[in-house]
Amino acid sequence: MAVVIELPPLVDHHCHGIVRGDLGIASFEAYLTESDAPAASGTTYFDTQTGFAVRRWCPPLLGLEPHCPLARYLARRRELGAYETARLLLRGSGIGTYVVDTGLPGDLTTPAELAAAGGGAEREIVRLERLAEDVAETCDSAEALVEAVAEAVHAASDTAAGFKSITAYRHGLGLAPEPPPPGEVRRAAGTWLAARRDGGTRLTDPVLLRHLLWTAVATGLPLQLHTGFGDPDLRLHHADPALLTDFARATAGTGADLVLLHCYPYHRQAAYLANVFPHVYADVGLALTHVGARAGAVFAEFLELAPFGKLLFSTDAYGLPELYVTGAEAFRGAVREVLGGWVADGAWAAADARRVAGMVAADNARRLYRLP
Amino acid sequence: MAVVIELPPLVDHHCHGIVRGDLGIASFEAYLTESDAPAASGTTYFDTQTGFAVRRWCPPLLGLEPHCPLARYLARRRELGAYETARLLLRGSGIGTYVVDTGLPGDLTTPAELAAAGGGAEREIVRLERLAEDVAETCDSAEALVEAVAEAVHAASDTAAGFKSITAYRHGLGLAPEPPPPGEVRRAAGTWLAARRDGGTRLTDPVLLRHLLWTAVATGLPLQLHTGFGDPDLRLHHADPALLTDFARATAGTGADLVLLHCYPYHRQAAYLANVFPHVYADVGLALTHVGARAGAVFAEFLELAPFGKLLFSTDAYGLPELYVTGAEAFRGAVREVLGGWVADGAWAAADARRVAGMVAADNARRLYRLP
Amino acid sequence: MAVVIELPPLVDHHCHGIVRGDLGIASFEAYLTESDAPAASGTTYFDTQTGFAVRRWCPPLLGLEPHCPLARYLARRRELGAYETARLLLRGSGIGTYVVDTGLPGDLTTPAELAAAGGGAEREIVRLERLAEDVAETCDSAEALVEAVAEAVHAASDTAAGFKSITAYRHGLGLAPEPPPPGEVRRAAGTWLAARRDGGTRLTDPVLLRHLLWTAVATGLPLQLHTGFGDPDLRLHHADPALLTDFARATAGTGADLVLLHCYPYHRQAAYLANVFPHVYADVGLALTHVGARAGAVFAEFLELAPFGKLLFSTDAYGLPELYVTGAEAFRGAVREVLGGWVADGAWAAADARRVAGMVAADNARRLYRLP
User: Fold this and answer.
1) For B68, B265, C274, C300, which has the most beta carbons within 10 A of its beta carbon?
2) Is residue A94 part of a domain?
3) Within a domain: residue A5?
4) Is residue C1 part of a domain?
5) A35 within domain boundaries
6) Complex-level ipTM
7) If interface means Cβ-Cβ distance under 8 Å, which residues of chain C face chain B?
8) How many inter-chain contacts (A to B, CB under 8 Å) are there?
9) What is the total count of domains within chain A?
10) Number of helices and strands in chain B (H, E)
């Protein structure tokens, strides 16, 4: 006996902008993977769960059959143009609110443009390392840099829904948990400024990364932390969220919440942290998007230890409007399959399943980010 | 074609006592989580797999509908009183033997009281760190402490079914595998006694923890080791049972068996150790209790590499009589779902499934702990 | 609505020889486990997923019922004799090409003998550590050893399909990623030769292990790397393929491909590496063989992140011809269950499922190893 679980418009608490122009097949393909290299000879990134999910869910929103030939889909996309394609896909995604990390490079749509195309609301998440790198452009002393970062974080906290850190792939999550002393921060800032003069702009210094984390924590806004898989420049085992245990302990009681993003394949570890630390949340986003037909299985693993009030939906979509659709469909399919299955078995009451679905789809994010 | 897999009365080879008095909603809720903090604002620990499992399985044993409103369930509990509630729940759990770790603090029932309420048999497991902390109360020199610990372990081995170590959350499992030399043990004992005079009573010294492990191994009784998730004061990745590989190698041939408790989310690692080391066993307890509707999925992961003669049932129940019920039902449901499914597919013969179910439910524990 | 997914003759890209003589029950049992010790008292390695899989799939190929009593199966085996048993089992396995790692000790069949018995084609994989240990027999100076290794690897590359390293259980995968400088290699070679004169023959020196890896990479042939579970002398967490991230980065662009073998329980980590590095492949072999009825579940986890053009079938069969059958059946069953299930759900198109099945079964290996 199947149970119907209706979902409200989704709050996508972690996504990015989309590219503006039309895309050829090669540039389209490049957005289907976290790799920064072309696919191996004899293979294509369309032959992945992400590729198959795009071919399943997106053609119908553009008036084609699911799994239609790729060439036909891309032709239809060109026929409609980039803007109309984005509009149709985003409005078909069922997402009502876009909480956008604006820290990615490239000519991507702003949160306002994205929300306008999708017919939804929007908020911004400020990426700490990008903020520091932008600020460093205008500073010529360590003292100035430290002060300018503090001001920029404070200013951002007036409007941003939260902050995000990519420490996981800049250094790894195995950082000393406490805030670094001011003297160390100044020294590290000086060393980084000197390195920037020699052409190295990326922020990878662990003292500065920790300082950014604690500066964000001091605002009391939620702090999103990349954990688990994603960009190819990380070492996966250095992105295990369990490495954040001491940081979670150190930030308990500060009033700031931590949101563990992505987490896969360490999502059970992330769920454990969300279970034992009241201020830790976990995100099922990127994982569900990338595993396609396996979204239900991965979602169910999250739901083993994570308290149901601590899980958040996101797509982590980036570049292609298609990825908002696949992320949202992966989530809705997972909810139907997993929660629906438990109701059918008698393990859960139908009313509880509906309530939990609504919490993960939107309510938890609304409460955490204080959205209307 | 469904196969019926009957189970004998279960041997719960790792559980604790229950609280004696009546419980209000907040104190009841606190037992549903491994966290030591109140639930995050806007959330409740009832919204977890453990909470949903209690609401599924326990109301019928008290004459109510599954998933009935929580207030009604707690009212019925008060109406019956703590003792009668415990009696009804424990006798409805299908557990026939309680092997009780008596090392937890708090006013909990003794093994004899628990078994009397549940109408079953009982044995005791002695927790090494608690034993050492109790012994240290009466010792004023390192020599006296070392001797008193040796005597206490020896005395306990006359009646206990085995020992248990919580090294995983006192220090982590990354310990040197060999027994520490006597001189080192004496020095560490002296340092700890001095620290105790300053008010620090918890045993966290790795030399003493290793010494306790080897003292227990010398008795030849099974040694239970906490691994994986559980108390919030652990670092999950320091509790990966794979860290015990060298200790397993060092204790092979001593005659003592090692029992890896809980293991989640590293239960596949635990199953590997049980596969390659004849004296290593693994426990499916706490994991199944906590993951509720996912018990079958986690149990199936254990059954990938673990030899069927090496897996043990437990509830790790503590405080609430409800948790014996949910642990036992999670296990029985997992057996039905997983083993029953394999029989239906033709992967396993029905007779084998029944035999394996009986082994994990009771026979393996009877053989390991030499129970009647 | 079930979809039929036909598979071509399989390319088993990683297997070993089989034993020549008849086997008693104890020696037969020893091949069902990765342990080097007899089963624990009161247990048997037949009570494992591997044992149950042998009893499911092999009796029918010898004219008996699935799951027939073990004694009957072994009697039938003796009646047929070792050669005829092997012939019937191998020809019933559906394997068409055997790519054989010849580095195991013991009196095992050669690749040609194996292929003749199975009626298939064959190629050889040369195990680097064995090659170095063989070469060391004839060298009396570090210079001679270094030169002889270079020549032997070069000579092997003329005929071998690829190389294999067991660094994972000789030292662990946490090696410095870059090639060691020649001076260090010479020094390490000298130290090892001296140790050999004292009776220590196993190659465990990390400098020499790295040198072998880079010598193999220089040939441009695929390099198989043991990762994850397997032999009992490894520490599982030191065999996590994520530890190879820096080595993967260092070898990108050399023209040599890396093939991560086994991977379990870190197969999601392996799939991630195959996703982000074009020259990294992953193997589902030993895991599926050992987890029996769970093969579909583990295969599905591989298919979350691994691009479909990067996965390879193998059995890692060794000693018993039965293990070729169970490895192949585990794979075919997994394909039917997992890919068939996705087609039934509408997640995948049937034509895509058939295409992906053929890629993993044979096409990917043919392309990678340049097989006809």
Assistant:
1) C274
2) yes
3) no
4) no
5) no
6) 0.96
7) 33-45, 47-49, 52-53, 55-56, 66-67, 229, 232, 235-237, 264-265, 290-294, 297-298
8) 97
9) 1
10) 18, 8
